[in-house]
Each structure stands twice: as structure tokens, then as C-alpha cells.
Amino acid sequence: MTTLHSTQGSSQADPAGHLTSEDIENLGRELDAIRAEVIASRGERDAAYIRRVITGQRKLELTSRAILLFSLFPPAWIAGTAGLSISKIVENMEIGHNVLHGQWDWMRDNTIHSTTWEWDSASPSEMWKHSHNELHHTYTNVLGKDHDLGYGIMRVDEGQKWMPLYLAQPLWNFINACLFQYGIAAYDLEIGKQLKGRGDKAEFRRNGKKVLAKVRRHVTRDYVLHPLLSGPSALTTVTANLTANLVRNLWTHSVIMCGHFPEGVQTFEKTSIDGETRGQWYLRQMLGSANISGTPLLHFMTGNLSFQIEHHLFPDLPSNRYAEIAPQVQELFGRYGLTYVSGSLPKQVASAWKKVFTLSLPNDFARKAREAATTAVAHASVTTSVTRAVFGTSTISTEAA
Amino acid sequence: MATTAPRPTVAGALHDRLVKFAERVTTPLVPADYLDIIDPLRSGAALRGRILDIHPETRDAVTVVIKPGRGWRGHTPGQYVRIGIDVDGVRQWRAYSLTSETTRADGCIAITTKAIPGGAVSNHLVRHATAGTIVQLEQASGEFTLSHPVPPKILFLIAGSGITPVMGMLRNMTDAGSDIVVLHSAPTAHDVIFGAELKLMASEGRIRLLERHTDTAGILDVSRLADIVDDFAERQTWACGPAGLLDALEQRFAQDGIADRLHTERFRPTIIATGDGGTVTFAKTGTVVDADGSQTLLDAGEAAGVLMPSGCRMGICFGCVAPLRQGAVRDLRTGQVTNAADGVVIQTCISAAAGACDIDL
After folding, report:
1. pTM (2 decimals)?
2. What confidence tens digit (pLDDT) does each residue in B114-158 have?
3. Total structural domains within chain B
4. What is the ipTM of this complex?
5. Does A138 contact B at CB distance below 8 Å?
6. Which of B210, B242, B265 represents a domain boundary (last residue)?
């Protein structure tokens, strides 16, 4: 009998431990049926949806940028910046992310296709598709293989080894959030690997050139050309575009953190996916993802990544269908005795940030600090005991998770 | 053949500079992506058209009137146009003969479509399409046109929807002065597309109309063509209809030594040779498909979501060629098998897998 072995601290039981192999394969078949139903009914209504979204987003962007030509006037600055922020968010999330997943390739329209779409974000589409579609979606939440677990700059699971640099991870997370489109590009470049001396140097140079070229084009567009076109409003257009990019970065970062960091999401050992069946893959996606609950507007603004579970089960189904299949998926969770992790946006964001703070310290830091203090008090010499406890041979920082 | 490039002008250079600047402003999109929202039919856009009107011709055929974008370069009567239309959300491309006068005041073009059983696009056009729909277009093409000078004696030998390119020619031949015989086969009188118009042309003396209703008179026997049109051998013949009819005609004319007097237009490639099929790998996208021996690589790839270039979908225009990197494919029209080698390209629209193969798409 093989069950998926997930890790969530040594104290918690395997949330899928009650499922037999047969249960898991039946689960897989039921999920396959949901997928088949969506594919069979894909048609005019879905095509009309994405076309409407794309047309709407481009109209919003044109209008916002036109308004920002007069950004010197505060109402124009506010309206234009708000519109441009929303336009960038929609282009990245509901449109770009989903088109690049191939969700709309079935339409055979070469202007809305994963092989031709270049999205409005610093990371070139081809590179992002590799790290996202090929790596993250295949190795979802597998420690050591899915680097979305912390992006290499943070520790988000007790199964990940602690290092002193993680002490400042709330700061790294905040910086990453502010510069998120560049953070994604750096991540897709696998800079961490390069810094460790691994990774193909020639490929890194090639990809690095592509990233720099795209960044140069986008920076020129937002901070040189549009300001130039704005004449007297040049400086305020710069601040407007800076703000819009920042808003997009902060929003997308927050939504993406909610996908796999909140409390209740499982991570998995590398060895547990050897010989993984389709049913087991589905199960890992179910346990390794978390949803955000809210209004249809919220779902739209998150690019339907609020349905992270449904997206991870069916990454290439049209995003407008996730809301429709969510009740069926939730029912499956219930019937198979699994927990459907979901919460409001503030709750999930707070949960994710809490993890960033608590795991910036080594595992069980609170307990070990208390023990050290208790030991010191029991001995007469408080100072030396505490000092030895903290800086001596049994310093907490050398205890690996 | 030497070609000379147009001499660069100041206006041209300025235009190029403006376009480059506009591209830098719209990156990662191109200006067209925004302009298309404002005016999809403008000159300089990818060629499109807007359906203005759809009216029935028979119980299962309609004429679709389309206003083409301003980049439309016109057509020669008898030619066809490739149309890309979204059916159930999926973009499908088909070729239809142009039936309109080239001198239409409103600048519109017209095609006439007959619903084929199981045909996705033809049934959509006949039963569901609405005016206002934007369709993709390509410039007119095809060689099924009148020769110049116009021959003095002409035979238009057509069946079913094969009448459409001929109607395109007839409507543009008002002052030809030739002796024209139109021999047309359709199941019943009600199925004759443009039946009334043909009768009118006949009554005006522009054509001699011979209408056969195959439900009662049976399929045309090509060997007895002289009984129906006694001087057919003296005429230049343009024929369009089912593959069987065209095959028989080509054989007959060849036998009689007058193959050069027959011009045919086929709407479907003749498939004669299917085999075992195999696993097709589309190298650039990494998509792998199991295709059977009668499925074209084009259909297999499209069904799997691969972006496949295509043209006439019949093996004529070479718009679908792709390099064959590994394995072998079979030409469905002839059975000929092509093996992969450096520089070997194949037409995906009339080829099926002959075992495992690897296409560079």
C-alpha cells in the first residue's frame, strides 16, 4: 500500500493517511470526469469571455495612459493610476498567466496562444513558462524541488533547513513584494543556482540578456516614453507609472503567497513522488494548495488564482470554469475526508505572513529559548549559564531543523 | 527574376520611424493590438471582413455577403478566398469560391456555402452565423479562372456546390459574347443553387442551360457526354463538382487527347491511401499525439492545441509545410511514404503518420 507521504511537522498525522491506493485512484477517476466534462463543453461562451476580457483590459489601459498624459492634474493622476494598476493586474493574472498556461490554446487563435503571448511583466514568457508550468506545476510543494516554496530567499516550511539569512526574511519578503515582477524574473533566471556555482553559465548569460532586454524595453516605455508624451506632466506620469507597477507587484505577490503558504497547506518529501500515479498527483495538488474565498470581483482580480486548488488540479482548463467546478471539487474533498483549505483574502495573507515571521527563526525556537533560560536559572551562575546556552557549544543556531 | 525594391522616400522613412516609436510605446504588444480594437477593418491590419448579410439560396445553402478590410486587393472571377471563422469558439479555416461581381459598388464580396453533413463550418454558416460577425480573410487565390482571351466556345460542367466558382465567372461575363453551355447536375430542381438566375441568363440568351436532376435522371455518365453536349470536344471546359465526376472527366479528356481543354477545381483532396498511423511528436511544443492512419497531421496537431500553419487544406498551396525531423509520413492522396532526412519538408494537411514521427512545429 502506498499513500502519499506529506510533511507538516512531526506532530501532525498524514492528512491523507486514511486513503487506500484504490481510494486515490477512484479520486483520480472522478477528477478526470470533471475535467472531461469541461473540455466537452468548452465553446463559444468561453471564447467570448476571454475576448471580452482582453478587449476590456486594452481599452482600460489605453484610456488610463491617455488620462495620464495630463497627470499633472491630481484627479487625472488618481484616475489614470488606478486604471493602469487594474489594467496591469488583469493583464498579468486573468489574461497573461492563464493564456501562458495554454488555457486558451484550444481556440486556435494565434493572437491568444501560449506559444505567442508575451506578457506585461519583466520575465520573458518562455522563461516563466519553464519555471512555472514545467517545474512548479509538476513538483508542486515538493521540498527541494518546488522552489516556489520560499523562492530561495525564505523558509516557509519546517522541513526546510534554517539558515541565518532567514532571520531577515520578513524584510526579503517585503522587498520581493515591492519589486515582484523583477523578483519573478530573477527567480526564473535561477540566479540562486548561479550564485551557488551550479547551473549552465552559457544559458544563464543568454537568458540574462533576454531579461535585461525586456526590462530595458519596459522601463523605457513606462519611465521615458510615456512621460515624454505627457509633456508638462512628465514627472507626474513617472510617479503614476511607478505607483501602478508597485500596486501590481504588491497585489500579485499577496495573491500568490496565498496559493501555497497559508496554514493547512501540505508539503511533500522528494522521495514520496517516486512512481507517483495520476491519482496521487491529483491528491498532492489538492493538499498542497489553498483557495481564497470572496466575491466574483475578487476572483476576477486574482486571475481566478483564488481557485488555486482547482487551478492546480486542472491548470490548462479555462479560468472562467474554475468557479463552476469548485462546488464539485469541494464535494470530493468532503467525501474523501480531506480538508479544503480556504479563507478570506485578509485571513490568508495574514496566515502566509505569519508563517514568514515564525519560520524566520529555527524550528521550536520558543521552546529551546525557554529551556535555555530555565537551565540557566537552575544553575547558580545565571550569566555564564545563559551565555553558554546562547553562545556556547549548545547554541540554538547550530541545531538544524 | 530580378526585383527592385521601392526607392526609400522621406515620407516612408518617417513612417517607419513613427511605427518603431509606436512599437516601443506599446511593448510587449504591437500598435495593431490596440488599433484592432478601434477599427479591425482598417488598411494595414491583418486582413479581416465583416459579415453584412446572410440570405438563403436553397434549403441548405446560403450566400454570405462580406465587407472586406481596406487591404483587400480584389479578385479574378473563379478564384476562392480562405476564411477564418470561429465556430463554437474554435477558429476554423475554409476556402470558398467568390461568387460576387468584381465591380460591386459597395466593395463587398460574396461566397455561397452549402451545408455538408457533419461539416462544422458549412453548417455554422448556413444555420448559425449572424451579420456583424468579424471573420479573418486571406487575399483571393486560385487558378480556376477564365483564360485570356476568352475562348469563343465554353462548357461549364458543374455539379452541386461546384456551381459557385462558375457563377463567379458567369456574373462577371456580361459582355463576353462567347457561346456558353452550362451543364449542371443537382439532386432535384430545389437543390439547384442560383437556379432562377441561371434560367434568367438562359432566357436572355447569355447561356444554354442544361439542368440534370440526378434523383430522376441518374448521375452524369461521362462516357456519353457527346449525347448531351455534342460539340464538347471543341469547347474549353471548366468543371467543378464531386471528385468522382472530376476523375472521370480527366480520364475521358485524356483518352480523347484533349486534356489541355479541361480545367478542374477540386474542393476536396482525394484520399486513397491510409495506413497504420503512429505517434506524432511536435518538437517545438513537445506535444505528443497518437494519430491513426487516416488522420492528417494537421488535424492531429490542431486537435492537440498545436498552432499549425495551414492554407487550402488540400495539398495545393503548400501553406502547411513543416520539416520532418524523424520517422515517416504517408501522402494520403497517393500512398507515397516520405522518410525524414535533412531538409525534408512535408505537407501536414495531406500527410498522416506512417509510424512514429517527429515534426518541427
Report:
1. 0.88
2. 999 999 999 999 999 999 999 999 999 999 999 988 999 999 999
3. 3
4. 0.86
5. no
6. B265
